[in-house]
Structure formats: C-alpha cells, structure tokens
Amino acid sequence: MGGDHGPGVTVPAAVGFGQRNTDVQMILVGLEDVIQRELDRLEVAADSRIVIRPASEVVSMDEAPAAALRGKRDSSMRVSIDLVKSGEADCAVSAGNTGALMAMSRFVLKMLPGVERPAIASFLPTLRGRTVMLDLGANVNCTPAHLLQFAIMGTALSGAIDHGERPSVGLLNIGEEDIKGNDVVKEAADLLRSSGLNFYGNVEGDDIYKGTTDIVVCDGFVGNVALKTSEGLAQMLAAYLREEFKRSIFTKLGALFALPVINRFKRRVDHRRYNGASLLGLRGIVVKSHGSADAFAFDFAIQRACEEVRYGLLDLIRARLASQQPVETVE
Amino acid sequence: MGGDHGPGVTVPAAVGFGQRNTDVQMILVGLEDVIQRELDRLEVAADSRIVIRPASEVVSMDEAPAAALRGKRDSSMRVSIDLVKSGEADCAVSAGNTGALMAMSRFVLKMLPGVERPAIASFLPTLRGRTVMLDLGANVNCTPAHLLQFAIMGTALSGAIDHGERPSVGLLNIGEEDIKGNDVVKEAADLLRSSGLNFYGNVEGDDIYKGTTDIVVCDGFVGNVALKTSEGLAQMLAAYLREEFKRSIFTKLGALFALPVINRFKRRVDHRRYNGASLLGLRGIVVKSHGSADAFAFDFAIQRACEEVRYGLLDLIRARLASQQPVETVE
Question: Residue A244: closest CA among chain B residues belongs to which residue?
Fold first, then answer.
C-alpha cells in the first residue's frame, strides 16, 4: 500500500512483474477493495499466481517507527513481513516508511547470528559497472565491528548478484592515506585488513562513481548524505540541461537532433533502474523501494528481491559470517 | 609553487588577474628562477605590481602536515602565510597540500577569538544560485559548538560575498524531522535555534543542490564525502554523455547541432568557476585552490580571496562571533 503513490503504482508493477516471471507468485497485501479496484482497472483477475492478502491498516510515510511497530499489526507492511517470517512469502517489497519497515523487519524477522545491526544496501551505477554501497541510512552511529559486518554482507550481495568471485571492498574515508579519517574508520580498516575479505583500502567519495571497488562501506549518516547529495546533483544537472535546451528556437532544434543521444543517456543514468535497497542482516529478504517510485522503478525493486531469493543471499551471508568467526588472519 | 601543476598554472593565473585588477598587487612566492622563467615565457616583467618573493623550499602534495610545519620554513606556502601575518599581504592563495596549508595557517596566523577549529568553506552551485558549505574536510570530529561556529562563519561569508541580509543556515542531517540524526547534530540544532542566526533547520543531502538554504553546515568528514561524491558523479555523467555522443556518425552529427547548448551547459556547471575554498576561523585570509586547478580555475580562487579582503570578511566574522557571546535567546 505504501510509498507516495500507493497501489496505483505497486499493483501494476507487481502484476507486470508476475506476467513476465511465470515462476513467481505475487501476494498483494493491503486494503482489499483498493487492490481489487486496481486489478479491475488493469483487467486482471486474481488467480493462483496473483493473490490478494487483506490488511486493514496503512503505515503512513511520516509515522514514527515505534508507533507503527506497536499499533499497526494489521498494516500491509506488517502483514508482508509476517508472511516472510512464516515462510509463506520468500521476500517482501515495500515503498513505504523506511524507519517503520526497518523496525518491523527487525522485530519480526530478527537478525542473523553475527550481525548486530541491519544495513540498507543499494547498487549504484559507476564508470565501470555498478557498486554496492551500504549503509545508506539505517545506522547513524556505527562501531568498527558494524562496518566489518556491513562489508561481509555487502560482499555476499555483490558476489551473489554480480557473480563476482572475490568482490573488492572499499572503506569510505576522506583521504586515501591510512592516517586520515576518524577513529571508527581507522579501526574498521584494521578489522577489514585481517578479515579475509578482498579489502582494497580507503576510498573517497569520488571513488563510488569511479567504481574503484565493488563494495563501498560507510556508516548510515555518511552513506545517506552521499546518496541524497547525488540525487540532488543529478536533479540540478538535469534541470540545467532542460533549461539550456529550451532557451530558444535554435536550442530546441538542437535538442531535436540530439534527442536520440539524450534519450540513450537518460536511459543509462535512469535512477529507477537502481531502485530497490536491500535490508541486510535480517533472517529474511526485505527490499525497500524509493517512496516516489513509479511502476517502472518498483518493478526493479521486485526484481532485486527475487534475485536475492534465487541466488540464496541469506545462506551466502550466513556462510560468510560463519567463516569470519573467529576472525581470519590476512591471506 | 603548489598544486599538481605548479607555477605553470599559478603564475599565468596571477599575472592575468593582476592585469585585469589594477588595484591589486600580486606577490609571487616560490623558487625565484622557476617563477622568473614563467614570467619570461609570458613576456611579463616583474614590476611594482607583480613582485617575486623568493622561497627556497616546496611542500610536496603528499607531505605530512606536521613535517611540513616543522621542516619547511622557507617554503612558498609558509612564506606566503608569513606575509599575511606581517601584513605585507592581505591574503594568501595556494593550490598546495591542504593539510599542510591548514597546519601552517593555524600555527602562524592563530585562530580568531571564539573559534576553536578552522573550517574549509566553499560555494557550490544550486538550482537557485549558490550555497556556502562547510566544513569540507578540516575537522573529522566536531562538537555541537564547532558546528555553531561554522554556521556563524558561513553566515558571515555568505552575507559578505552574496550581500545577503540574513542568509539562512541548514544543518546537514539524514532526515528533516528533529528526531533524526546523531547526538552531535541534535545538540547543534538546539544551539543554532537559540543563536540568533537565520536557522532553517535540518536539511538533507539533496537540499545542497536544491539551494534550500544559503549555508549548509556539517562536520568535515560528511562534508568532504558529499563534495567528493559530487565530483565523482559529475565526472561519471560527463563521461557517459561524451560516450553517447561519440557512439556513431549520427550521434556525432546530433552533437554538432547540440553543441551550442552543450557548451552553455558545460560553462554553467563548470566546477572551475567554484574553485577556491576559504579557510575560515583564522586571523588572516587564506584560500585553497583545488590541486588540479588550471589557470582559469586558479583565477577564481584569487578572486575569492580578493573579495574576502574587499568585503572585510575577517571583521564581519569577528563581529558575528562577538554578538554570539553570551548566546542570544531566540528572536
């Protein structure tokens, strides 16, 4: 039900995804009549592959996570997570309130052994391909051990989805030299060096989009600022480009000739293709879609969740965590 | 002498600036023969308006700040700062090693009363104009009081250069709600609310380029990551756009038609126009140019320093700091 647009976006996306992926059963959780109306509008009948699971409540986008956790036990969000817990669903996808989704997921599903905090991880486009970045906002204060756990989970995610053997891990810092950065980052670097992971070392902000490493690890405050700053910059550049092309009849003519190129470019940098952040560290697969996602973007979030199920992400994380205890020495 | 390119960039920039600004005397500090060779190449004679001040040493880009501070007393960097201290120069501009510049400036010039830590501040382009952001990397760990001091100095800088009466201050955070963020940011928000500054409240990463506030305040770790991430994203987008236009004979033709637009766009987002970060909080004006700056970019750094002198930035900061003690109540 969630997100800025609700079932008007999530239902068409789910139906479309289900039609293209015939091995997947979609369970649409939420206000039954609203979902049914959407299905009617799409001229799709609920059948064995598209099922409605009624939930009478809705978690609003600005609701306090603790309040949602206590009060909204029959919300679409909570029921979806309960379905993952019971095993009836393999994964849950939501465009709703991030904090509430995190709190409910943690409460219902519990953490994997060896993980103290869940992390929000997402793929970002780079000059070389794509990079997994985490944490993107779940944890404001992190210890070095948390950052190590993020690196382990990020390695599992990157390895699973991009089929990498030993994906490289960069630690986000403000200088490449070991002496730079705060104490948490310095200690995290020590832990990472002796972790057996493919630790590249410190990376700086520009390394994210250079694609210097397959994974970039940071605390949730820094990661969230970096992500939102990127969104803001991309929007500003797009607005500037639009303005320049609309400046006069000549520039509009130029735009016409450049249109195929601009469209290819737009397609390539379309953030909707990167929609779907993984809530890692839980005993279940939960993917958060951007609240403002349209059906095209929401489809990618469903795809991310299904890939995580298909490649057995949870087992991969479990195995990596297990091999970390006790901490390995450097290879 | 500093920066990635040395006097081959800084001397032509200084000469050009001096020729356009006849009320400014330029003192070129560094290895005399190297500077003289550059002047000869430019067919410019050192005269009363362009003076060479010999300095026998050079601080390298990767030198440890403490080592440079102890060992390089006759470096171009140190001599420049000494000239500011003695009053012979009104400001110093360097493209050299940031850490060393900061350490030397702090040691030689000392801090303004009421400022515990210097901050690196820069203007960034936004959808509405431009925004002053600080700290961009001088301070990894900040207290709420430091962030308040940054806000005061940023207000003075923004007000002076952009002639704003009461520039607005945003506190960089990961959510607009007051409950979000870490303890330092929460306490800083309390201080800012009762500071008498035009405090807007929390802003998120995307607000930087939206231009939501005239000033964005954050600690140096977060600020540096946000800045470097922006650089990386802009470079990636530029590379993508170039690739798309070079894809075929048709796209190249499209590029030809779009060229005037693309050039205007490039000019508008040219980061060189924003070159020149102010080292705020010192008893003297020091501006840091990007190490990779070319002459065009370095010119903007000189311009920034001269504007700070012209508008009496130090006195404005002093006055704002003085009016803050004791802390004012909310208006």
Answer: B261
